[in-house]
Amino acid sequence: MTKSSPQAFVKYDWNLSFDETKEFFKETGVLVISTSELYGGFANLLFEIYGSDIIIPEGIVTIGENAFDGLPITSIKLPNSVKYINEFAFRNTNLTEVDLSSVTRIYEYAFTKTPITSIKLSPNLYDLEPGAFSDTELQSVVVSSTHAPRTNQYYPPDYCIDEAFDKNTVLILDGIITRDIAEQLVGRSGSNLIIPEGVVSIEECAFEGMSIDTVILPNSLKTIGSYAFAETGLENVEIPENVIEVGSNAFPDTTNPEPALVNPVEMDALQADSDQGTSEPVLPDLVTEFDDPQIVSEPVLPEPVFEFHDPLTGSEPIQIEGARETFDPLTNPNQISGGTVSEFIETDAFGISG
Fold first, then answer.
1. Which of 160, 225, 308, 313 is the most exposed place for a label (fewest CB within 10 A)?
2. Would you say the pTM of this structure is higher than 0.90?
3. Which residues contact 111 (CB under 8 A, 6 or more apart)?
């Protein structure tokens, strides 16, 4: 290993002191971290390795107090092992976005005085202390309305969503945009709207009557309520592919067609041919019968059926290759048990008719 291929990893049984580790790093370009908490000394060495784009090695659990404070880092990649971010850990850095989806506790002022515009918080977050994201450029954030349960009952959760962010940061609770939240978003960002990732639902009439020139919808979005963007002047919108439901007149002013949901793929398969009335419809995999006299002359029988027999009409049984007999208490009370059926059932098997 040479200086031209630096790397960092965690090794808890590493016996060298920090100064010896630093010398080892200078000689080999390899940084060995012997603790689960990353403090300032190691943070500075990571900055020497990666520059402004920091990668935290797997095995680190805690980002220590003031660890990266004042370093000109612009991005950071956290492994799933990181659960705690201590006070002032990233204060006065140049971070603009950060994924905290594995973090369960964020201490006070951890990201204060940074130009952050986008964050992703964990649904398992149970501590969010005051000032954690103060003095940032966050316009909006998706955050859970309640904290996750904490395993240590001796220390109750400190979940201060009203104090963790700047007063003008719009808090989208549980990923749902209500009318009130919509008004705050437009008031904060103006007529060019970016809905943040994490939003799953836009309620009906949410943005109705507001002036919107453009809107970017997130991939996380699932439902859009009726009249959600009615009378906004919005002419074009791209619906993310993960959206499963769009209410009526959600985008009445747009020139591009509003998608027909729910689920467009299956609906197209069912309706494409039946609308024409000229051929059998295409059925989804789980559908075994589609009995429409205008389209299908005989029911389509599933594979377990061997024979279709109608003793009431006296007609000859219809042999269906590779199938078993249907059981209908009205037309065929003689149920056939499991197993291979190799001959037809007689019309009067018990001689009842004399």
1. 313
2. no
3. 89, 90, 91, 95, 98, 119, 132, 133, 136
- To the nearest 10 degrees (0 to 180), the angle between helices 18-28 and 40-50 is 10
CB environment 248-262: b (16+ within 10 A), e (fewer): ebbbeeeeeebeeee
pLDDT digits (tens, 9 = 90+) for 4-21: 445 898 999 888 899 999
Greatest alpha-carbon pair distance for the chain in Å reads 106
Tokens of 260: 């027909």
pLDDT score, position 261: 47
Paired sense of beta strands 170-173 and 140-143, if any: parallel
Instruction: Return the closest-CA partner of residue 170 out of 221, 117, 226.
Output: 117
Query: What whole-number distance in Å separates Cα of residue 351 and Cα of residue 354?
Result: 6
Interior angle at CA 186, CA 223 and CA 230, nearest 5: 50
Tokens of 196: 């943040």
What distance in Å separates the CA atoms of residue 211 and residue 182, rounded to the nearest whole number? 12
Buried b (16+ CB within 10 A) or exposed e, 190-217: eeebbbbebbbbbbbbbbbebebeebeb
Report pLDDT digits (tens) over 297-306. Answer: 455 555 554 4
What Cα–Cα distance (Å) separates residue 16 from each residue in 1, 2, 20, 96, 269? 18, 19, 6, 35, 66
- Taking phi over 0 as left and psi of -120 to 50 as alpha, with beta for the rest, 256 belongs to beta
Q: Which residues pair with 128 in a beta bridge?
A: 106, 159
Low-confidence ranges of the chain (pLDDT < 50): 1-5, 257, 259-274, 277-279, 287-288, 290, 292-297, 305-306, 308, 320-327, 329, 331, 334-346, 349-350, 354
pLDDT, averaged across the chain: 80
